[in-house]
Specification:
With 268 residues, the protein is of the alpha/beta class. It is built from eight helices and 13 strands. It folds into two domains: 214 residues, Spore Coat Polysaccharide Biosynthesis Protein SpsA, Chain A; 49 residues, no CATH class. The radius of gyration is 18 Å and the shape is globular.
């Protein structure tokens, strides 16, 4: 396949309280959208309303707090049972000025619905590839296109940044690449999605069930620095993704500042 024929959707599973993949808060004069090639598209996935999930919302918040406690495994099991009836359907979504609003509340319990809705959008709009990332990540679009140009979107491909734990041999939610074939297969089996797990763990479980092996791609987690030269020394050619930790300094998220510097270095 030639590079020009690729149709890639970059999807940022964001929060309503976050700026949509913009470096403007850091004083940058460009947004991520301007860094994409004409055939690439990017959308943010926002929670919009409670809809049919309203009755679950308060309960899910309670379970999210309890699941990390001493008896968390029991609460997770209960949450899995509660969420089971919802697993066969997807929330409605709508486009507003290039953003994708999903009819679900915010919260960790509903991240899986965001991810599945992203796949649904990509499949219906006939994208070859879906790249899922977050606001603390910098996807290097030209490197991603070069990497994907060698692959066939009609094959089952599940790639991205490796989860930090060796126990979970899956892909981190900060950077996931799915072929159109994989998105279709996951949607066809969405009733097996474990909504009691975080979205990337649930995706790992389902791909294992479907016998889709992960492909780990070059990704670097950057240490925060205010020195451009020091930052440049951490960059490597062929890296598809940089993870910028959302460190707080004087109440300001440093990942935005780091991405501003990263954008400048990569484009210079």
């Amino acid at each position: 396949m030639g590079q020009l024929s690729l149709k890639i959707l970059y999807c940022f599973t964001s929060s309503q309280n976050e700026p949509f993949l913009s470096l403007q808060n850091a004083g940058a004069n460009a947004t991520w959208r301007l860094l994409l090639s004409p055939e690439d598209r990017s959308v943010a996935v926002y929670a919009n309303a409670f809809g049919s999930f309203n009755s679950l919302y308060k309960a899910s918040l309670i379970f999210e707090r309890l699941r990390w406690g001493r008896f968390g495994s029991y609460f997770t099991l209960v949450l899995r049972i509660i969420m089971k009836p919802f697993s066969r359907r997807l929330p409605n979504w709508k486009e507003v000025n290039g953003d994708l609003f999903v009819n679900i509340p915010e919260g960790l319990t509903f991240l899986g619905f965001k991810m599945l809705s992203s796949m649904d959008y990509a499949v219906k709009k006939q994208y070859d590839w879906l790249v899922i990332t977050n606001l603390s990540s910098y996807p290097v679009c030209y490197e991603i296109r070069e990497f994907l140009a060698r692959l066939d979107p009609n094959q089952d491909i599940y790639a991205g940044k490796r989860l930090p734990s060796d126990v979970n041999s899956g892909i981190s939610g900060s950077f996931v690449i799915l072929s159109s074939a994989t998105s279709k297969k996951i949607l066809a089996n969405k009733q097996f999605w474990d909504h009691s797990s975080l979205d990337d763990i649930a995706l790992m479980k389902l791909t294992k069930k479907l016998a889709i092996q992960p492909i780990f791609v070059p990704s670097i987690t950057l240490d925060f620095t205010e020195n451009v030269r020091e930052l440049a020394s951490q960059l490597k050619k062929g890296t598809l993704h940089y993870k910028c930790g959302p460190v707080l300094k004087n109440g300001i998220r440093q990942d935005y500042l780091l991405m501003q510097m990263l954008s400048h270095v990569l484009r210079s």
